[in-house]
Amino acid sequence: MTRLTLSTLALLAATFGATAARAQGTARVSVAPESKIWIDGTSNLHDWSCKATSLEADVELDATAAAQLSTAAPKALKKVDVKIPVKSLHCNHGGMDGNVYKALKADAEPQISYIMATFEAKPGDVKDTFMLETVGTLTIAGKQNRIEMEVLATRLADGTVTAKGTLPIKMTDYGINPPTALFGRLKTGDDVKVNFELTIGAKAIAAAINDR
To answer: How many whole angstroms separate alpha carbon 84 and alpha carbon 173?
Structure first.
């Protein structure tokens, strides 16, 4: 066997070992069923709200830090990945649903997605709360934008972690024409607020750590 081949094998072994170590060090947890996301907006006739009746959100945790979550909650967080089927959005004014799907290009781009890439944490004003200054990518109607957002994370007594926040956005920043309804009589405003309340159960965290 040549020296070059030996070097190549050594490099592959080192790369594989590093990849395996990273995989073993990560625990992936799905959010609890009670988690929710909704969008609030305005129009020339009345305010409106659309709630996601289905969502998929996974949180990647550093397994070692997560095992000591009672003392290292922010340090455990690595990545957040959220996906919402557009057609799972249902509005408090039934006639708006179809118009919202059309505005969001649901047939061509059936999913809204968000990926949190980085964050900085600082203690909150109340015990066991943390304010996360996050940076991530939001994709709506096929248009991707970098966003910065504050998220309030709270660690409950049983180890459950909740995350809440509100993100103001402009629909036109995503190439969306604000939807209309009632044959054009109702015209929505460009500014909307995306609200979320995500919960990660203590049992789900423990199971993910044990199964990694």
So the answer is: 19
The closest alpha carbon to 192, from 82, 100, 56, 93, belongs to 100
pTM of this structure: 0.80
The CA–CA distances, whole Å, from 124 to 121, 132, 133, 136, 154 equal: 9, 9, 12, 21, 9
The values of phi and psi at residue 128, to 5°, are 65, 25
Q: No. of H helices and E strands in the chain?
A: 5, 12
Q: Cα separation of 100 and 52, whole Å?
A: 12
- Using one digit for the tens of pLDDT, what is the confidence trace for 176-212? 999 877 666 778 999 999 999 999 888 887 777 776 5
What CATH superfamily classification does 27-211 receive? Lipid/polyisoprenoid-binding, YceI-like (2.40.128.110)
Which of these, 176, 167, 128, lies nearest to 146 by C-alpha position? 167
Neighbours of 7 (CB within 10 A): 10
